[in-house]
Amino acid sequence: MWITYLKELLELARDRKTLVFAVLIPIFAMPLLGGAFIYLSTAMFRHAQSVQMNYAIVGKEHAPLLSARFAANPSFREVQLDGEAAIRPAIAAERIKFALVIPEGFENELKIQNQASIARHSNSASSTDLTRKRVMKLIKAQNDSLRQAALAPLRLNRKQLQFALTPITLVEHSTADKREQMGSLVGGMLPYILLMVCQMVAMYPSIDLGAGEKERGTLETLLLAPVRRGSIV
After folding, report:
1. CA separation (Å) from 222 to 5, 18, 149?
2. Which residues have a Cβ under 8 Å from the Cβ of 129 and sit 6 or more positions away?
3. How far is 24 from 177, CA to CA, in rounded Å?
4. Are residues 142 and 69 in contact, defined by beta-carbon separation less than 8 angstroms?
C-alpha cells in the first residue's frame, strides 16, 4: 500500500498542472477570491448608502417641517406624483425608491402633543433595501427637534434635558485587547477556509487517480499491483 502511495505522490509532484490545481489554487487563489468578494460587497454597500435616492411625499402640506428636512438633504431627490394611487406604479417603474404618505391633521396632532404616524411605501422584496434606515435617520432628527421643543417650557438645563431624553445610557467597555479581537475574527473564518482548502486539495488528486491514470495508460498497471482494490481507492 505504501509503495503505491509513494508512487502516486511522486507522479503528483512531477505533474505541474495537478500540483498547481491541488496546492496553489486552494492556498492562494481561494482566499484572494474571498477577500475580493468581501471588498466588493463592502464597496457596494457603502455606495448604496451614499447614492442619491428618489422619493415622493403625498400630503407634504400636512408636515411642512419634515418635508423641508427631506428637501434640504442632498442624498434625497423629490419626485412629484399625482396622488397616492401613483405610488405603486412609480416604485415598480423605479422612478422612486420610496414614498411617504402624511395624513391630514398630522401637524395638529403634533401641536397637541399626540403621537402621529407616517406611512412609508417601498419595495420590501429587495434584500439590499436601505430606505428605512436612511428615512429613519431624518425622522429621528425631526423627533429630537420636536422633543426638545416640547420640553423647552420646563426650562431645563442641558443636563436635565439629557436626563429627560435618556435617563440611562450604556457605555461598552471590552476587556479583550486587539490581539484577542483579531483572533476571534480570524478564528471564526479560518475553519471554513481550511475546510474549503481540504476539499480542493482532495478533489484534484482524486480526479487524477481516476481520469489521469486512465489518460496516461497507467491505470491497468496500478490495478495489477499486489494490493487490494479498496486500498487503491
Report:
1. 11, 19, 87
2. 122, 123
3. 34
4. yes
Q: Give the domain ranges of the chain.
A: 2-43+175-232, 53-165
d(CA 120, CA 56): 10
Q: Which residue has the cell 406604479?
A: 89
Strand order from edge to edge, sheet including 76-78? 76-78, 53-58, 98-101, 119-122
Q: What is the pLDDT of residues 197-232, one digit of tens each?
A: 777 767 766 666 666 666 666 666 666 667 776 766
Which three-class secondary structure state does DSSP give residue 155? coil
Helices (H), 51-177: 64-72, 87-92, 106-111, 131-151, 158-165
Digit-coded pLDDT (tens) for 74-95 = 889 999 998 889 999 998 898 9
Q: Tell me what pLDDT residue 204 has.
A: 66
93/158: higher pLDDT:
93
CB 52 within 8 A of CB 134: no
Does the structure show a pLDDT above 70 at 186? Answer: yes
CATH 3.40.1710.10 fits domain 53-165: yes
Tell which residue, 93, 104, 95, has the closest CA to residue 56: 95
- Who has greater pLDDT, 71 or 213? 71
Three cell numbers, residue 111: 401641536
Query: Nearest CA to 100 among 65, 67, 129, 145?
Result: 67
pTM value is: 0.56
